[in-house]
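Technical appendix A lists one of the benchmark inputs used to test multi-chain prediction within the project. The record comprises two sequence entries:
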Amino acid sequence: MYPLLADGLVNIVQAKYLLPLVLGTLAGVVGGALPGVTITMTIIVVLPFTFGLDPLQGLAAMTGVYVGGSAGGLVTAVLLGLPGTPSAIATTFDGHTMAKKGEPGRALWIGVWASFFGGLLGGLFLIGATGPLAKFALQFGPWEFFSLFVLALSMVAGLVEASLLKGLVAGAMGLIVTVLGNDPVMGQERLTLGIPFLKGGIDFLPVLIGVFAFAQIMGEIERRGVHALSADVNRSVSLAVSHAKVIWEVLSRPFQLLWCSFVGVLIGVLPAIGGSAASMMAYDQAKKFSRRPEAFGTGTPEGIVASEASNNANVGGSLVTIMAFGIPGDAVTAVMLGALTIHGIQSGPLFISQNAQLAYGMFAAYLLAHPIMVLILALGARWMLRAVTVPKAALFPIVLVLCVIGAYALNNTMANVYVLLAFGVLGYLMVKFGFPLAPFILGVILGDQIEINLVRSIMTDADLWLFVTRPISGALLAASVLSLAAAIWQHRRMRKRAAANADF
Amino acid sequence: MKLSRDGWAGLAVLAASLFLFALTLELKPSPLVPIGPGFYPRLVLGLTAVLAAALVAFDSFGKKAIKAEGKGNYAAVVLHFAVFGVYVVALPWLGFRIATLAYIAAANALLDFPTGLKGWARVGAVSLIATALVYVVFERYLSVLLPRGRWTGF
């Protein structure tokens, strides 16, 4: 493992890989810092730029976006009280309070160094766990894969904040997208509705780009949020600190750092929960374990460390599931999965053994992205404040043009652009009607694999009981039933609490 | 029995899944595999129909959650979708360069209406620079072929 990692590091420091990594990290930091732009939108924008690159260059750029974006969100969260990404919401509680008390530099750099160390701890998990998990997944037959994908889908549907039923309907709608066009086993045409371009089925990337980009941009337009934040920005603020002191402030809380990073990794491994839940949960945990819980929310460094360490460690966890099982942990890794597909690489248990150079290159890119992120923030944190003054009226149309290129360039056909528009409308409507997007997207991504594994297992042995009697498959199906039961219980409890609060 | 947004959404999903389910009945079984191309779609569409029906039922007979929601700027959303739709339709006819230039200018102006000559000049400059930059980066450096126009020839 270590020689391969060393090879990966040697590879990635070559200019042809380092440049995309630096540019990707820079794009991530800027995109993460811009309120309303999010990491998902940044990676969607970066995607078309990777089409002309080799796979490792493209993945290095995307890994950079992911790492940079997870840290970038804290800049505006701390300095303006506006989280650049949802995963930085918990950072505002203490980060912005500390900044308002006259220590913006300390608040920012505690966040940056916590992101750095949290991210590296997530990296240790990524490097150490991906191989063994992939080896474990190699024992899977079609029954186990079917059950694993069903578990992923039921977990995502159950863990969304909206109603469980809506989560399940959204997941089922995603599966419907994959049954249009052709049968993935025999290639037989089905449900094309007389539309010629549906004969080849629907690529998931235009669907994903359309759903996420439009849901977000149109949501912003609807809220009249297109105006720049120039009025709120104080560019003369001093961010100078003693880095040794700040690093000590972070490292002098080893238990908190380790625990919050662990929470981040764990949430990252579970599909589609995301960095925002990780940072909120870690913040909550840190408060519970703290000797001074009353200090949380008043500008304590503990709050910043908890939130930032966990949201960057979350990245490592998300990458594990995509590299070991081929299941995207969130929308960002779903785009990365799409980028791999474009280059003809199949993610999943065989990924690491068949593409060792690429996998370890990606690990190396992940590790190297952290010091690059620190360097970018050291050189440009103040400049980031200028970035938030970019008028969104100019930014949004350009982002949508890049989405069009991303969809068009997949097969050089306008059909994918029409799909982008259609699913853009659907994505916006789904958000308006309160349907979560994560289960829908996971349904679109996993639909074909669910069908292929279901058909393969029935072709191998028509006995359906095998799904339950094979130990791993049975355990996975039991876990999906349990996750749905837990979600029902949790939703009922929340409803009861809401009703009780309403009575008062 | 009055339906809320959830109920109407459930009805739409139910109708779509039943329509597609009916279409799967026309699919012929394959002689090579024990289950034909219609097996899995029927499973998925049947499941969706049941879930959508449950959503309608819960909405009709269960307690409705009252959501306080501010009025959004829906006219701007519809207008922006329309402008984007025109851009998508125009792309194969006008080609990437002209269609994109016009789209960025129109969308920018719609989102933040320019006042005075300076405002219009800013809109023009942003759209021109963005289109040129995107074109050069993708066509020249990343070898991504962008759509050519049937009317314009470029």
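Chain B touches chain A through 63 residues (CB under 8 Å). The mean pLDDT of chain B is 89. Comparable benchmark entries are summarised in Table A2.
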